[in-house]
Amino acid sequence: MTESLAEQAVSIRLLAHAGISDVAALGLRNRADLEQTGPARPESAYTEAAQRQRLESKLEECERGVRRYWTIHVGDDLAGDIELNRIDRGTWQTANVGYLVDASFRGRGVATAALRLVMRESFEDLHLHRLDAGALTTNRASQRVLEKAGFRRIGLLERHFYIAGSWRDHYWYEMLGPDREPAVA
Q: Where on the phi/psi map is residue 55: left (φ > 0), alpha (ψ -120 to 50), or beta?
């Protein structure tokens, strides 16, 4: 299988304190999309200071090993972010994947390429066993990203999240990595 142009140009980089301002600006630029796909936030959450604080909190979770957070780049341009949430080591060896691609980079395979890079890191370097992800039943673009990356739809979570004023259904997806014995904690 040959890589698409997007896959050749896409890279992921672990978030560092130095990149927080750029990622905060990404969130602010894509506010309308975040409001349609994520939990309600107060108006005060959409300031650069609040976004910086949110990202600092995520970096603390990365240091504790319960999250891994990358920025997505196309060449040198910041194109989005992607993260592993709720990393559970124990007997589960699992994590949940979430991502955002800037509106100016959508529809070009960027999210799928970034997700494949995270899958490789998750299974080869982090030795996770399973990744899961949810997508609103109305978010066909996100469903396509997951399916193109090889995730399998395993069910429907009814009224899973309260988003944009109502409880919304999500399709649930999974990707299994290689079977290996969990590391002893």
A: alpha
Greatest CA separation for the chain: 46
Spatial separation of the C-alpha atoms in residues 120 and 178, rounded to whole Å: 11
Question: From residue 125, how far is each of 37, 121, 122, 168 by CA, in Å?
Answer: 30, 5, 6, 34
**Burial of 8 (C-beta count, 10 Å sphere; 0-12/13-18/19+):** exposed
Query: Rounded to an integer, what distance in angstroms lies between the CA atom of residue 31 and that of residue 55?
Result: 15
Phi and psi of 178, rounded to 5°?
-70, 150
Residue 66 corresponds to which amino acid?
V
What single letter denotes the amino acid at residue 18? Answer: A
**Which class would CATH give 5-176?**
alpha beta
Each domain of the chain, given as residue ranges in start order, spans 5-176
Full-model pTM = 0.90
Q: Over the stretch 36-69, which tens digit does the pLDDT of each residue have?
A: 887 878 888 888 888 889 999 999 999 999 999 9
Alpha-helical regions (H) of the chain: 5-9, 20-29, 31-37, 48-64, 110-120, 140-148
Confidence of residue 4 (pLDDT cuts 50, 70, 90): low
When pLDDT is cut at 50, 70 and 90, the band that residue 1 belongs to is: very low
Are 69 and 81 in contact, with CB atoms under 8 Å apart?
Answer: yes
Give the whole-angstrom CA distance, residue 101 versus residue 97: 13
